[in-house]
Every structure is written in structure tokens, then in C-alpha cells.
Amino acid sequence: MARYLIDTNVIRLYVDRQPEVESFIESSLAKNDTFFIPETVKYEILSQFVEMKKHEVVAARKLIAAFQPIEVELSDFKRAHLYRRQGRKIRKYHNGWKKPQTPALPGLADSFIAVTAINEKIDLVTNNLKDFHLLRFFGRTIIEPITRERYGPIDFKNKNTIPNEYPKS
Q: What would the pLDDT profile of 26-85 be if each residue is shown by its tens digit?
């Protein structure tokens, strides 16, 4: 039984009826895997309701209700800031090793999602690989739901384990 943290884009892809994402979620639920939704993702989706068709809003509400909620705590604001700061250090090391791709520095919302995955020790389901690359340096795995590829943790102390890039999407 796996535990997954869901990212905003996965909910949008599910609502848009992307077949591979629907299959991933439905097969995971059939195996009794548990999906968690951080408040950050919930409110990102709720803010997008004005852009969605009525049936998409209904589908998004049902999906949100089906997942276990995780609240953002006051201490998570500091952790998100520290995550971004540590990301800057990792980028510096990465550049020093002359890798062709520098990890992206995530925005604040993505930092909250990453901190939730770290705090709860849950792997992240997203197809936004570049913005969550740093999460792998904190011992978490990223699952890409369309291809079902798993990108495991990275030991940043061993420069030979630093991947050059993700597959082109």
C-alpha cells in the first residue's frame, strides 16, 4: 500500500480526462494506495474553478474529497523558506560540477508542497518534474503519472549520482 502526495497539475490532468493519469489514480486506488492532498494544492484548485467547466468543477470537488487532507502549519512557512535556501546551495554545487541542467528554484506554492512531502515522508505524484527536482535531494521520490516513471532520491554528496536531466516532455 503506497502513500502519495498529489500535485495540482495531476488533479487538473485527471479533471481534463487525461487517460494515463486517470488510469494511474484509479489503479492506485484499486490497490488501496492512499492519496494525500496538501492545503496548498486544494486552494490552488479552488482558485482555478472560475476557469473550469461545470463538469470539471464537479470532478475536481469529488477528487479533492476522496483524498486525505494535510493542513499547512505555521512552521511550514519557515520550512518552505529553508527549502528554497537549501535549493540555492544545491544549485551552486550542481553548477560547480558542470552539469548541463541546473535544478529549477521552485516557487513558494511548490515549496510548500515539497515541504509537505518531506514532513510527511510521502512521495510526490506530479508531471512537473523540473520544479520539484530539488525534492529528490531530501530523500523523496517523484512519480510521473503519465509515464509512471519513478525518479528516486539523490545523494547530493556524491556528484556521480546527480542526473543531467529528465526526459523531454
A: 999 999 999 999 999 999 999 999 999 999 999 999 999 999 999 877 777 778 777 777
CB 103 within 8 A of CB 134: yes
CATH code of the domain occupying 3-161: 3.40.50.1010
The three grid cell numbers given for residue 119, joined into one nine-digit string: 514532513
Among residues 153, 138, 105, which one has the least CA distance to residue 161? 153
Write down the pTM of the prediction: 0.82
| CB contact at 8 A, 116 and 136 | no
Q: How far apart are CA 106 and CA 102, in angstroms?
A: 12
Query: 130-138: long-range contacts at Cβ-Cβ below 8 A with a sequence spacing of 24 or more?
Result: 130/103, 130/104, 130/166, 131/104, 131/106, 131/107, 132/7, 132/106, 133/103, 133/104, 133/166, 134/83, 134/86, 134/87, 134/90, 134/103, 134/104, 134/105, 134/106, 137/86, 137/90, 138/83, 138/114
Q: Name the strand (E) or helix (H) holding 151.
A: strand 149-151
